[in-house]
Amino acid sequence: MTQEIQINNQHFVLHPTGAIFWQEQSALLVSDVHLGKISHFRKFGAAVPRSAILKNFELLNSCADHFEPKLICFLGDLFHSSLNQEWHYFESWVKSRGEKIILVEGNHDIISPLKYEGIGVRVVAEILLEGFLLTHHPEQREGYFNFSGHVHPAIKLRGRGRQSVRIPCFYRNEKQLVLPAFGTFTGSHVLQPRKSDEVYALIDNGVLKVPV
């Protein structure tokens, strides 16, 4: 189950994977995949199954096949660190897709832009388009609505007893929307939203607006 929202007369679809589809631009926005992180931890002895490496690519394909975008835009931290075996998976994935692909650099993106450009992926610092600012770090700039990642936002939901659960979410305020981390092996940061903010939690393969 997806969730449709409007911002500045543009239409966006929030997807349970944590991606956003911008209808007017036929653009799929994805943030904080952190490819290579699983291989990095496995290298140092973490008990993470090798099959988990392919999960991110399966999710990317599922989401892209659903929306059939013309553009896939990664809002930073596409790779967790330096090159490892997951680059070869990524290279094969890029070759299998027909969309234009752009990476907005994040703080973890230390792989040379020349490496990306060699496989047809454009690397930029930011994107300004139709009154929207696409960045990795959340940013406020006069006259623009900002889409970003980096924070890995989550909301803590409490039950009738003392139990609580931390759930990834889309977080929106008047001038910004922060995407949850797309990657399957990433942490999260619990936010304390204000009453005027909007939170869309990723629950049971759906996107649900929750009261704040």
How would you sum up this structure, described in words?
- With 212 residues, the chain is an alpha/beta fold.
- The protein contains four helices and 16 strands.
- The protein has helices at residues 37-43, 52-67, 86-96, 113-117, and strands at 3-7, 10-14, 20-22, 27-30, 71-74, 100-104, 121-124, 127-129, 132-134, 145-148, 153-158, 164-172, 176-178, 189-190, 198-203, 206-210.
- Strands 8, 9, 10, 11, 12, 13, 14, 15 and 16 form a nine-stranded mixed sheet that branches.
- Helix 3 links the parallel strand 5 (71-74) and strand 6.
Q: Quick summary of this structure?
A:
This protein is α/β, with parallel strands linked by helices and about 210 residues long. The protein has four helices and 16 strands.
Write the layout of secondary structure elements.
Layout: E1 3-7, E2 10-14, E3 20-22, E4 27-30, H1 37-43, H2 52-67, E5 71-74, H3 86-96, E6 100-104, H4 113-117, E7 121-124, E8 127-129, E9 132-134, E10 145-148, E11 153-158, E12 164-172, E13 176-178, E14 189-190, E15 198-203, E16 206-210
Parallel strand pairs: 4-5, 5-6, 6-7, 9-10, 10-13, 11-14
Antiparallel strand pairs: 1-2, 2-3, 3-4, 8-9, 11-12, 12-13, 12-15, 15-16
Strand content of the residues, in percent? Answer: 25-35%
Mean pLDDT: 90
Which runs of at least 5 residues are low in confidence (pLDDT < 50)? none
Treating each run of at least 4 consecutive H or I residues as one helix, how many helices?
4
How many β-strand runs?
16
What string, H for helix and E for strand, traces the elements in order?
EEEEHHEHEHEEEEEEEEEE
Which sheet architecture does the biggest sheet show?
Answer: 9 strands, mixed
Structural class: alpha/beta
Q: Which geometry do the CA atoms define?
A: globular
Distance between the termini: 21 Å
* Radius of gyration using CA atoms only: 17 Å
In helices, the fraction of residues equals: 10-25%
